[in-house]
Amino acid sequence: MLGNGVVGILAESVNKWERRAPLTPTHCARLLHGGGGVSRIIVQPSTKRIHHDALYEEVGCEISHDLSQCGLILGIKQPKLEMILPDRAYAFFSHTHKAQKENMPLLDKILTERASLYDYELITGDNGKRLLAFGNFAGRAGMIDFLRGLGQRFLSLGYSTPFLSLGSSYMYPSLAAAKAAVISIGEEIATQGLPLGICPLVFVFTGSGNVCLGAQEIFKLLPHTFVDPSKLSNLHEADADHLHHPSKRVFQVYGCIVTAKDIVEPKDPTKVFDKADYYAHPEHYNPIFHEKVAPYASVIVNCMYWEQRFPRLLSTEQTKDLVRKGCPLVGIADITCDIGGSLEFVNRTTSIDSPFFRYDPLKNSYHDDDLEGNGVLCLAVDILPTEFAVEASQHFGNILSRFVINLASTSDITSLPAHLRRACIAYGGALTPLFEYIPRMRKSESPEEVSDNLADSLSRKRRYNILISLTGHLFDKFLINEALDTIEAAGGSFHLVKCHVGQCADDISSSELEVGADDKAVLDQIIDSLTSLANPNEDHGFLNQDPSKISLRLGEVKENGINKVPDSKKKSAVLILGAGRVCQPAAEVLSSIGRISSSQWYKTLLEDDFEDLTEVEVILGSLYLKDAEQIVKGIPNVRGVQLDVMDHENLYKYVSQVDVVISLLPASCHINVANACIELKKHLVTASYVDSSMSMLNDKAKDAGITILGEMGLDPGIDHMMAMKMINEAHMRKGKIKSFISHCGGLPSPDAANNPLAYKFSWSPVGAIRAGRNPATYKYCGETIHIDGDSIYDSATRIRIADFPAFALECLPNRNSLLYGDLYGIGSEASTIFRGTLRYEGFSQIMGTLSRIGFFNNETHPLLKNEKRPTFRKFLLKLLDVASEDPEEPMIGEKEIIERILTLGHCKEQSTAVNTAKTLISLGLLEQEEIPTSCQSAFDVACFRMEERLSYAGTEKDMVLLYHEVEVEYPESQITKKHRATLLEFGKTVNGKTTSAMALTVGIPVAIGALLLLTKKIQTRGVLRPLEPEVYIPALDTIEAYGINLIEKNE
């Protein structure tokens, strides 16, 4: 059965709330129709799975309880024992590789049935980081659930707060909807405030992994300020006037992130905190959290891993003492759900539908579902990620689907990639060599005190014995095998005295072994071998330690010092070329990697997808150093340099120092940069169109083993990715594209559209106007339509977008739409293919009239040849064929201009003439000011005035609107549906600095393209557009994570 290409998906049976799926219908469609090694997918029916059975059927899956024909069977949680079939391969979270006692019957069943077991938890990248996890979703759901309970608890204490209107995470149709609800709460806090009696409202976060980052992500949607742990007491002193001003309100909440150094301190007052020493010798440290941090906490959001050898975060007695002293602690969100762990009094789990209990420290009493009375509100739900079942399944399946083909089509484990071989606990009914330690672990008498009878009969009878403590990634990197084999190979024996296993990939484990030998020389050899395994440092005795090594302690032997753990994450570098507005958001995205604290809440979202990067160093190269320095000012890990890309030596110098280059230069400069990247074997990302000269580099890029990723901006870029996602999903459901319509535009936000043209320029008017006068070709209802460049403005049509009906818009055809039919693979099936540019209604009529007046004529004008410069007024009157103004007559004004425009036939409508006249006046073309010598044509004059008068001022914001409408016909059901996707983004002002929406929607995607290359998520080499799933799926996910909302609807 193994390797037969038939995949089964289990119906989850462990918990009624488990609605996640290992693969969504979209993933299944891709596997079935992608030409890989999956021939069939059989899905067990489930009425609670987040994706209905019918959706799986639509993409070609079979629905059946019987999975006997499947060689590979996938699930999320452990299945019931009776669901294990003989000679099959299973993949799920088994929780068996650390010999967890409660799951050993499952492992025994796997072995008895000669089955194979792959554990998602063990699928790791080259850096040892888990590839399949739900940590961020646990943090997000847990934080939202707790905020809901916090509102209820405050009400029971006599305070009405905005939190009361929040629902539990599962009550929202999507993560985006849940975030929107939290944002609404935040807006109410910012405008209406919180009662002074519950303030300062301080949220203390413990931990630094994905769980904590997910919780912080939600917290940062509220108006907030982060406070250093050492400053918490000052915060409370500042609010000491509560009693004197009881009617005051507070308009923000406070956050505080604590790490190990805030939780403990060395017992020896002469020493300073050392993280590595603390992990190796926690007994040398005293707890201080209950004295330094907890007295000022309103809420503790616990996301830290803990094991018994460490001091607790809060003991029962410490909590009682805090409450007795009047600590403002209202609640505990124990998202780790570590029962009896770092928070001693959390002695039970709660459920999604009943998530809270109240603990009264003074009476040491527990009250389930009772928020009235004294005590602390506690949340301890152990299945939080399933509350966001849609997003969690999508995220999980995006990664799992990469491995399914190998697992489904392989009958020989030795042919699997290394990361999958390492994840195989059992194969064909036998433990694989990496997991042969499990039987030794199973002989433990209790979870914490392990007594191995076989070892006991050996080591304790040996003449020489020594207690050895091993610390490190003993189980997830299988170093325990290496250590035990070393002992036995030398002729020694061991007794496993204690064992503490880490609960996630970031956590270390420890074991204490009593090692024995009859010969002192043998024991010395064992010690030497283990010391070598621990990677000794000649100067200090030990180096503690890269993830592939262990830390070693021998009996009472004291070591002089232990070096800190070197960061196993990869440090990378990116070169950004350019000096425009787009460079800043690109640099900010890249520099944010690895930084937990950030002024933008959305930066924390990157950690899950790009967690193997500790930081990205950014070099920003510009022709002028001052421009580069201005852009990078205030951005960490970014430095500006002077760089002329035409200077071969200087260009190669900087390209050679980085992993990826982003070129935001004019398109004409890209070839020079691309050739340097090919020669130096560095990836390249641009936001420009892939023209013929760039396409010709495809083979050279492939030979160099690099990717040149073009069209990775907004338009082109996000428009491609949204389109391909919609088209591919329709094809996977056997749909046929009847019509593809796309509109995109960069516009002033409504409050900034304060001129008659209702338009402003964020870049040169020269380029914008020329781009808007290119000829266009498109297909409508099977007919190919050509529009000359001179007629583009006259071809504009009125449009209203369903999701934003208040916008009065028009659309102009944009270049050759038929090219996109070929790019998107719909040229032969779609009868309508149209791409257009959006403007506010009336724009084209005015621009068309200006064109007919002659303002877009690029030829040198006779009046502008003279050394004596004419005024703008004189030049305008010349274009309007007004010979000269009679000094005896009234000055020509708006009324006369309107009449002249109509008389000359430049437009037919009175309203258009009025708006054009107002535009001419607002541009200063009636003013008695000399035209500068740089203007030699009417086009120069128009662009000069537009750049002066139609630029964004102060904190005025622009907006970007992108809209796709795809009409899909489903022949089998004879149903036609319209799929719509919309993006609306506004410019942002932070700390008085405004970043345009256009810069955000171009800069963020190019940065994400670079990150996808850095993390090897893009494997295809050559010249690419973002048209393939390996690019657009993770890119769109991350773009949304950055707060750029992509709205999809079907009708």
Description:
- The chain is of the alpha/beta class.
- It has 5 domains: 6-132 and 391-444, NAD(P)-binding Rossmann-like Domain (Rossmann fold); 134-380, Rossmann fold (3-Layer(aba) Sandwich); 471-531, no CATH class; 572-717 and 986-1050, Rossmann fold (3-Layer(aba) Sandwich); 848-950, Orthogonal Bundle (Domain 3, Saccharopine reductase), CATH 1.10.1870.
- The protein is 31% helix and 21% strand.
- The chain has 34 helices and 42 strands.
- An 8-stranded mixed sheet has the order 3-2-1-4-5-6-19-20, with helices on both faces. Strands 9-11-8-14-15-18-16-17 form an 8-stranded mixed sheet. It has a 7-stranded parallel sheet with strand order 27-26-25-28-29-30-41, with helices on both faces.
- A hairpin with a 2-residue loop joins strand 34 and strand 35 (804-813).
- The longest helix has 22 residues, at 135-156.
- Residues 444-460, 535-548, 556-569 and 596-611 have low confidence and may be disordered.
Detail the topology: elements first, then pairings.
Elements: E1 6-9, H1 25-33, E2 40-43, H2 53-58, E3 62-63, E4 72-74, E5 89-92, H3 104-112, E6 116-119, H4 135-156, H5 175-192, E7 194-195, E8 202-206, H6 210-219, E9 224-226, H7 232-238, E10 249-250, E11 253-258, H8 260-263, E12 264-266, H9 275-280, E13 285-287, H10 289-292, E14 299-302, H11 316-324, E15 331-334, E16 356-360, E17 365-368, E18 376-379, H12 389-409, H13 418-421, E19 424-427, E20 430-431, H14 438-442, H15 453-459, E21 464-472, H16 479-489, E22 493-500, E23 509-517, H17 520-533, E24 550-554, E25 570-577, H18 583-592, H19 606-609, E26 613-622, H20 625-632, E27 638-642, H21 648-655, E28 660-663, H22 670-680, E29 683-686, H23 692-695, H24 698-704, E30 707-709, H25 718-732, E31 736-748, H26 765-771, E32 776-780, E33 783-787, E34 797-801, E35 804-813, H27 818-823, E36 832-840, H28 843-853, H29 872-879, H30 894-903, H31 910-922, H32 938-949, E37 958-970, E38 975-986, E39 988-990, E40 993-995, H33 997-1014, E41 1022-1024, H34 1029-1041, E42 1046-1050
Parallel strand pairs: 1-2, 1-4, 2-3, 4-5, 5-6, 8-11, 8-14, 9-11, 14-15, 15-18, 25-26, 25-28, 26-27, 28-29, 29-30, 30-41, 31-36
Antiparallel strand pairs: 6-19, 7-10, 12-13, 16-17, 16-18, 19-20, 21-23, 21-24, 22-23, 31-37, 32-33, 34-35, 35-36, 37-38, 38-42, 39-40
Helix pairs in contact: 4-6, 16-17, 18-33, 21-22, 25-34, 28-31, 30-31, 33-34
